[in-house]
């Protein structure tokens, strides 16, 4: 009690400043490559070890632990974190902690709720096995192995970052043969963290039940990393200046134009570094890694190739296919950015300005602000749409429908044509939902749940913005499982099999009119074992999952105190009927193609994405 | 057994893990013979030379046609190790895969890069092979690509080895381009390199015999053949570089600390030791993955032939895996699967009388759709030797039990495995059902099926 009365008690800080590379060490200190992140404050132990993430510097190649940094050290606190350095492993640990914390915070503010890490699959496994899969503290291994690879591993409860020697012959901006640390690439950290975040939100998105599922994981992780680029103001302003505001260009104009051709007519070429056109860092991923691999380019870029409807039909490798999704989203983003900045360009040209020349400072500021704001908004749209995705077996077309639905719920008028931009960008790349009747906004929105068929959910508790208490969660879990059992047919489940509710969260969001929307987002799932071939039971079986996402708005309080919540959206993947058959066939094909048939019947992980092998690089 | 009352016979030699098949046709002008592959690699039983001797006797050292499905040692090593014996053969025609055509620049470049990758992997895997069974198997796969070592017969010498790997030596004989003084067939065969859909040109003898052949594979789209994209190759070659003798030590000894430098919460819910073991356990093995991919890629280059003679249909698929099958089952990209089997493929498979089981009975070489579409009660032969690849505990053993069980059901018991008969020094695999009476074992060397 005494302590509470002391008048000069110091409030806890809300944030902790930590320095990081905005891209990776290969860009040196060029233009804002060193930046300070202000991450949510928590007291940390050596590691850093926080409540939900811990940096564990274990090296499996050299079989040792490395010295952990203590961020609470006064000297570090006073400097706002250690200065960036490739050779200081304490800085590596600090940067990893900071970027992961910041990424998580971004997801949480976009989602309007707290997130948790992976929860074990309680349908297919015993309670004990599932609990062993639950990740409470996500481990980050900054120097996990000597390998050109970084990957999220649910088995190791964390993310492994490799280190490797840069190519001796074509190392790009690296020294030949220098050690390259994947844990110092901002892009790679955000990419891998996103895998962990999605895995926590959607347990069954690591079941590669069709070719889109692993591609979605990869594409989405790239999206998250690329959108972060647009928060780096200095880089943005530089790129705007050097692209005349065309932020989507692959190259930046060199500061000085090339020399005129010589008297002998020899072709003009750059002769000093200021004449060399640099790649636009905003739209490329993981430059240092790509350079070190001898590619002389980033690993992937947001807009690699011109849109082609055949892309979606033909690209099969998960990263390539994921890039189609990334390109579609970025096409929409740049379309909206151009629309929003169109009036600025008009004014500029009306005053005699030319976008060929350097964009003047004040205009660049305005453009950068718009690019950054729009990127933030798009990231939110993309993240919020996750809550509107089916729990299992996602297709890119489902994701488009989720985007359109989630966005129109909060922004019915859509003045800037964001939804139209998404629709056209996806269509241009051949991504269309397979079950929508028309390619119009109305038809693409998930249909509202059939009110006559689905009774209200009685007694559901909506908690508050800090999520549900344990008691509230127990009450809701029972109500929801019971509801699923009673309404199995309408929800698309098999009434004879148990239904689980792997997740349910209250979500708090503000719409365009400033009204607070409170919804319960519920995941329901069911598993049926299906033989690979009926006539040949020897070949074994695979789990076919049905699932339904329910979006249930909080009802207005009633005078009698009872709460009758109606399901607004029912987003289902059916186990039976024509849809069930199509999905069975597709899943069987995917397993067969991947060589999973009749393999390893006891292997717990065989029907899960193995990010370690999937990742070519990361 | 007199030739006059035999219309059609398939002979499967038992050599170990490798294919060596002889198709014999009775024609009004005498017997005609087609050799389909002649090789062994892992699990070499040392009997291939005896097999070639029997082949010479049986055919009078005259082959109307040799079909070489693909360039893996376990399908062609005999042409190197038994080259001396083959020098006495007259051969009318040789068919090989489009991918093995020396005049095809695209295919040649592709094969060269694959062999280069295999050679790069070889020393790294060799280092580990003694202590690690997975690495030993991967090494065998790599050797299967290059054709070096691995086979007992190769070690015995003989043949055209010289400075060439045994696959190169075998290809030199088959393509008719041996180094000076190297072995050649007694006659000059007509050579063809076929891809899916090509109308094949049969030697006159076989036309007379009423044989018709359709070429169903390989596809020429690298996407269907190569399960490795160039990017994967790039990454894997880096993995190879890393494994070089120079170990990479990122930080000096003074940075190493005991695990208790960390708060226990960091490891939750594990101990530091458990967590370290988990991190060890999830290390991806890029070398093994690369070896497997190189192996699969060549399997997918298999020449797949459908032969019709005397009203009987025979399907020889080499070691075709998913991409090759997908091409003729579904007509191209694998994503078109949802629309189902091409009706033509369905008809074809539904009328098959004899099926040579793909890839020695491995799990991914006979798609379920194909098993399903095969005619009930057709006859199948599988040349294999257990214990060379995979592990039953992981469900990756070759031959894969459940797949062969499914085929046994489909064929109503008419499935013969080469390891069902005992060689003089090599017993039959234990626990197999006895050979169905429709098959006749020949001495201790082969199994015959007469139509």
Description:
Chain A has 618 residues and is of the alpha+beta class. Among the domains of chain A are: 21-207, Elastase, domain 1 (Roll), CATH 3.10.170; 457-567 and 574-614, no CATH class. Chain A has 18 helices and 17 strands. In chain A, helix 5 (186-201) packs across helix 6, helix 6 (212-229) packs antiparallel against helix 11 and helix 7 crosses helix 11 (361-386). Chain B has 17 helices and 15 strands. Chain B has 451 residues and is of the alpha/beta class. The two termini of chain B are 13 Å apart. The longest helix of chain B is centred in the first third of the chain and has 25 residues, at 105-129. Classes of the chains: A alpha+beta (618), B alpha/beta (451). The interface between A and B is large, with 80 and 67 residues.
Task: Kindly list the characteristics that best describe this protein.
heterodimer, A: 618 residues, alpha+beta, Elastase, domain 1, five-stranded mixed β-sheet, 18 helices, B: 451 residues, alpha/beta, Metallo-beta-lactamase, Chain A, eight-stranded mixed β-sheet, six-stranded mixed β-sheet, 17 helices, 15 strands, disordered N terminus
Radius of gyration of chain A: 26 Å
In the residues of chain B, how many domains can be counted?
1
Number of contiguous helices of chain A: 18
Count helical runs of chain B. 17
Summing up helix and strand content along with how strands pair, one would put the structural category of chain B as alpha/beta
In percent, how much strand structure appears in the residues of chain A?
15-25%
Count every beta strand of chain B, where a strand is a DSSP E run of 2 or more residues.
15
Helix content of chain A: 25-40%
Return residue spans of chain B where pLDDT drops below 50 for at least 5 consecutive residues.
Answer: 1-6, 150-164, 228-243, 334-338
Q: For the record, what is the CATH homologous superfamily label of chain B?
A: Ribonuclease Z/Hydroxyacylglutathione hydrolase-like
What is the name of the CATH class of chain B? Alpha Beta
Mean pLDDT of chain B: 83
């Amino acid at each position: 009690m005494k302590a509470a009365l002391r008048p000069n008690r110091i409030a806890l800080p809300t944030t902790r400043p930590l320095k990081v590379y905005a891209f990776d060490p290969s860009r040196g200190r060029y233009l804002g490559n060193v930046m300070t992140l202000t991450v949510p404050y928590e007291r940390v132990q050596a590691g850093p070890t926080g409540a939900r993430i811990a940096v564990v510097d274990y090296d499996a190649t050299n079989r040792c632990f490395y010295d952990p940094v203590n961020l609470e050290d006064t000297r570090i606190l006073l400097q706002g974190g250690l200065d960036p350095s490739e050779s200081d492993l304490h800085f590596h640990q600090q940067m990893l902690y900071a970027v992961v914390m910041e990424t998580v915070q971004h997801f949480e503010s976009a989602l309007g709720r707290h997130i948790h890490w992976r929860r074990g699959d309680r349908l297919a496994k015993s309670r004990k096995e599932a609990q062993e899969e639950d990740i409470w503290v996500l481990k980050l291994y900054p120097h996990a192995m000597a390998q050109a690879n970084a990957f999220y591993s649910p088995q190791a409860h964390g993310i492994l970052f490799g280190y490797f020697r840069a190519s001796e012959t074509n190392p790009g901006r690296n020294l030949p043969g220098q050690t390259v640390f994947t844990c110092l690439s901002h892009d790679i950290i955000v990419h891998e963290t996103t895998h962990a975040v999605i895995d926590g939100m959607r347990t069954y998105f690591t079941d590669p039940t069709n070719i889109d599922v692993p591609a979605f994981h990869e594409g989405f992780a790239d999206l998250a990393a690329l959108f972060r680029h647009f928060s780096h103001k200095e880089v943005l302003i530089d790129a705007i200046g050097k692209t005349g505001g065309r932020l989507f260009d692959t190259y930046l104009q060199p500061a000085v134009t090339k020399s005129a051709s010589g008297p002998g007519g020899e072709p003009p070429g750059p002769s000093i570094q200021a004449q060399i056109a640099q790649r636009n860092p905003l739209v490329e991923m993981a430059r240092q890694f790509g350079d070190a691999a001898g590619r002389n380019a980033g690993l992937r870029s947001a807009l690699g190739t011109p849109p082609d409807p055949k892309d979606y039909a033909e690209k099969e490798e998960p990263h390539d296919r994921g890039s189609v999704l990334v390109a579609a989203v970025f096409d929409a983003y740049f379309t909206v950015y151009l629309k929003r900045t169109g009036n600025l360009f008009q004014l500029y040209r009306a005053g005699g300005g030319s976008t060929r020349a350097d964009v003047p400072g004040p205009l660049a500021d305005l453009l950068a602000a718009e690019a950054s704001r729009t990127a933030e908004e798009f990231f939110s749209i993309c993240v919020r749409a996750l809550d509107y995705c089916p729990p299992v077996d996602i297709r890119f077309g489902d994701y488009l429908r989720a985007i359109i639905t989630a966005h129109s719920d909060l922004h019915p008028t859509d003045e800037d044509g964001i939804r139209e931009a998404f629709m056209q960008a996806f269509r241009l790349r051949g991504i269309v939902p397979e079950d929508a009747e028309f390619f119009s906004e109305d038809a693409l929105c998930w249909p509202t749940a059939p009110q006559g068929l689905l009774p209200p959910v009685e007694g559901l508790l909506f908690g508050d913005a800090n999520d549900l208490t344990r008691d509230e969660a127990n009450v809701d879990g029972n109500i929801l499982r019971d509801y699923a059992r009673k309404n199995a047919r309408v929800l698309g489940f098999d009434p004879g099999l148990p239904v689980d509710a792997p997740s349910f969260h209250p979500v708090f969001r503000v719409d365009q009119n400033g009204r607070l929307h409170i919804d319960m987002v519920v995941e329901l799932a069911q598993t049926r074992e299906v033989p690979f071939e009926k006539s040949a039971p020897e070949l074994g079986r695979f789990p076919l999952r049905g699932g339904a996402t329910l979006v249930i708005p909080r009802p207005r309080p009633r005078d009698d105190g009872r709460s009758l919540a109606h399901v607004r959206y029912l987003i289902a993947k059916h186990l039976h009927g024509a849809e069930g058959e199509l999905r069975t066939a597709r899943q069987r094909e995917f397993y067969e193609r991947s060589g999973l048939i009749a393999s390893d019947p006891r292997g717990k992980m065989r029907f899960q994405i193995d990010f370690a092998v999937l990742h070519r690089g990361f | 057994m007199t030739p006059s009352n035999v219309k059609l016979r398939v002979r499967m030699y038992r050599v170990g893990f490798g294919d060596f098949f002889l198709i014999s046709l009775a024609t009004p002008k005498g017997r005609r013979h087609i050799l389909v592959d002649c090789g062994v690699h892992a699990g070499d039983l040392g009997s291939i030379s005896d097999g070639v001797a029997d082949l010479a006797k049986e055919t009078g050292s005259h082959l109307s046609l040799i079909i070489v499905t693909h360039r893996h040692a376990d399908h062609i090593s005999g042409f190197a190790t038994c080259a001396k014996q083959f020098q006495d053969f007259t051969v009318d025609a040789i068919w090989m895969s489009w991918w093995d055509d020396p005049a095809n620049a695209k295919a040649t470049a592709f094969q060269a890069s694959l062999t280069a990758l295999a050679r790069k992997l070889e020393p790294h895997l060799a280092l580990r092979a003694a202590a690690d069974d997975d690495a030993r198997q991967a090494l065998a796969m790599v050797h299967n690509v290059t054709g070096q070592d691995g086979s007992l017969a190769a070690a015995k010498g003989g043949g055209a080895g010289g400075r060439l790997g045994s696959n190169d030596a075998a290809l030199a004989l088959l393509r008719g381009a041996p180094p000076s003084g190297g072995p050649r067939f007694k006659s000059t065969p007509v050579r063809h390199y076929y891809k899916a859909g090509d109308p094949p040109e049969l030697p006159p003898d076989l036309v007379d015999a009423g044989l018709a052949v359709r070429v169903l594979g390989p596809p020429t789209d690298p996407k269907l053949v190569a399960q490795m994209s160039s990017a994967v190759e790039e990454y894997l070659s880096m993995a190879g570089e890393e494994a070089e003798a120079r170990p990479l030590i990122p930080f000096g000894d003074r940075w190493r600390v005991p695990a208790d430098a960390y708060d226990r919460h960091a490891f939750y819910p594990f101990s530091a030791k458990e967590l370290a073991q988990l991190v060890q356990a999830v290390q991806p093995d890029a070398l093994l993955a690369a070896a497997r991919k190189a192996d699969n890629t060549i399997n997918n280059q298999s020449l797949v032939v459908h032969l019709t003679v005397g009203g009987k249909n025979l399907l020889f698929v080499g070691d075709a895996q998913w991409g090759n099958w997908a091409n003729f089952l579904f007509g191209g990209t694998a994503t078109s699967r949802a629309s189902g089997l091409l009706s033509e493929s369905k008809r074809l498979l539904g009328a098959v009388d004899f099926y040579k089981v793909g890839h020695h009975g491995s799990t991914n070489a006979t798609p379920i759709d194909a098993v399903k579409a095969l005619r009930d009660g057709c006859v199948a032969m599988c040349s294999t030797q257990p214990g060379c690849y995979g592990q039953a505990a992981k469900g990756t053993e070759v031959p894969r039990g459940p797949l062969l069980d499914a085929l046994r059901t489909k064929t109503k018991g008419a499935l013969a495995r080469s390891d069902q008969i005992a060689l003089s020094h090599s017993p039959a695999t234990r626990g197999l059902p006895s050979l169905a009476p429709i098959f006749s074992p020949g001495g201790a060397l082969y199994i015959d099926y007469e139509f």
